[in-house]
Amino acid sequence: MAETRWLDDHEQRAWRAYLRMNTVLGAALARQLQSESMLSMPDFEVLVHLTDADDARIRVSELARVMRWEKSRLSHHLSRMEKRGLVGREECASDGRGAFIVLTDDGRAAIDAAAPSHVDAVRRYFFDAVTSDDVKSLAAIADRVIARVEATDTCPSV
């Protein structure tokens, strides 16, 4: 077994700051979204993926993959969203396997109403606090970390 490569003081400070930033930023954005739109962050993420998809529809298995959620967890969440009229389900006529999640008119209206204030909050809490060089660095760091995780992930399809 390889010897543990402990974090040095600078790495530990950076790692803990990243974790804390992720926690406080995520909580602030979740509160803003919930209070102004009655959507949770997972609701919003589902709706974003649907608005980005062709014909505002996506297979449940693909949505689970991109959200990195277990299919059963996602299925329960989608059922709650379906009861609220934000999404619908359609069987896949071409192969009979699985179903599509489809954006409803109410779901489209919900994300259209929520997006402007959410983007304002993202800008206020995050982008207004960093420089354009910071943004470029963050994008490069994120790309490298994501690539490394995805290249070594033993369970990418959840």
Automatic annotation (TrEMBL):
PROSITE patterns (UniProt xref): HTH_MARR_2
One Gene Ontology MF term: DNA-binding transcription factor activity
Any Pfam family hit: MarR
SMART domains: HTH_MARR
Gene3D superfamilies: Winged helix-like DNA-binding domain superfamily/Winged helix DNA-binding domain
Domain HTH marR-type: 11-147
GO-annotated biological processes: response to stress
Protein name: MarR family transcriptional regulator
Source species: Jiangella ureilytica
